[in-house]
Design the sequence.
């Protein structure tokens, strides 16, 4: 296999004709319609996924909860939720089958402190996933977060307001939520952007088909 073929298989370069053959590790999203559009059939495991939302409560957390719940039941690792805008409701998370005993909430007011906390958590070897609510973060710190995700083979979800849509991002996957029933895949490895993906984000846990 030549270098170009190897890079294409790993998702570093791609052709429109063969994007679905890209071999990347994916975490089932819990939404079959979304899995069908993502390389690896799910959230990239060793990378940053960026979720852009118009306002809090549009479905940004419900989009990732099925995957987080799945991870929380798999082993004794813990999840880091950094800078949540509101105090999470434990009974609601448990209804989504998330093991809240493996959930660590933390806050960091300065971008450098946030990045340091996230890096150390990922490097600890005990972190299943990280969810980070943030706004402005410079490119250098974003690259540090992406590198830490790659080195630890840990999925990192960054939730940001949609006003940052046009800001350059090193995230492997970027999704913009339009409404609880529609989203845009702004950026994905080995694939073109895709608009108006129909997706029902339920208010309560439902098993994926």
Sequence:
């Amino acid at each position: 296999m030549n270098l170009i073929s190897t890079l294409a298989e790993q998702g570093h370069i791609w052709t429109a004709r063969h994007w679905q053959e890209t071999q990347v590790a994916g975490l089932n999203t819990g939404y079959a319609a979304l899995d069908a559009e993502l390389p690896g059939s799910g959230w990239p495991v060793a990378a940053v996924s960026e979720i852009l939302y118009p306002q809090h409560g549009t479905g940004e957390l419900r989009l990732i909860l099925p995957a987080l719940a799945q991870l929380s039941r798999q082993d004794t690792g813990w999840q880091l939720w950094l800078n949540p805008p509101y105090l999470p409701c434990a009974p609601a998370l448990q209804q989504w089958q998330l093991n809240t005993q493996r959930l660590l909430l933390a806050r960091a007011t300065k971008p450098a402190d946030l990045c340091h906390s996230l890096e150390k958590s990922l490097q600890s070897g005990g972190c299943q996933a990280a969810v980070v609510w943030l706004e402005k973060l410079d490119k250098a710190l974003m690259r540090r977060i992406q590198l830490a995700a790659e080195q630890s083979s840990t999925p990192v979800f960054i939730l940001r307001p949609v006003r940052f849509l046009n800001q350059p991002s090193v995230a492997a996957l970027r999704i913009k939520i339009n409404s609880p029933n529609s989203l845009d895949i702004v950026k994905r490895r080995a694939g073109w952007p895709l608009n108006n993906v129909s997706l029902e984000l339920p208010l309560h846990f439902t098993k994926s088909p």
Remarks:
- The two ends are 37 Å apart (CA to CA).
- The chain is about 25% helix and 25% strand.
- The chain has one domain: 25-198.
